[in-house]
Amino acid sequence: MLGAAAMAIPWLRDFFARQQRDWLRSVPVMGALADTVGRRVENMDERIRRAKRGDFYYMIFGLLLLALSFAISLWRGLFAAS
Q1: How far apart are CA 53 and CA 60, in angstroms?
Q2: How far is residue 70's CA from residue 10's CA, in Å, rounded to a whole number?
Q3: Rounded Cα–Cα distance for residues 73 and 76 (Å)
Q4: pLDDT digits (tens, 9 = 90+) for 26-36
Q5: How far apart (Å, rounded) are the C-alpha atoms in residues 33 and 16?
Q6: Of 45, 66, 68, 73, which one has the greatest count of Cβ atoms within 10 A?
């Protein structure tokens, strides 16, 4: 369970960033504020597209937890009956 949660953290972070970006795009603005909002949206797009080191670490950590969970259940399944 923890492994799957650790692997979902990067996806959730990007999901909320996309949601915020879409909300910013839907707000009608004009003038200098429109330029500011446009730059903010571009920065958010770049942040979403860019590969992040933390995402890689969360993925490895999640996969290790899943493998550990599998190994423990296999061990208990093989040797619990004896």
Answers
A1: 11
A2: 23
A3: 5
A4: 888 888 888 88
A5: 23
A6: 66
What's the whole-number mean pLDDT along residues 10-24?
Answer: 86
The overall longest dimension of the chain from CA atoms, in Å, is 76
Provide CB contacts within 8 A for 54, sequence distance 6+: 10
Overall pTM surpassing 0.85 (yes/no):
no
- pLDDT > 90 in the chain, percent: 2
Question: What is the Cα–Cα distance from 35 to 13, expressed in whole angstroms?
Answer: 25
Instruction: Please name the residues in contact with 63: beta carbons below 8 A apart, sequence gap of 6 or more.
Output: 3, 7
Q: How many residues does the chain have?
A: 82
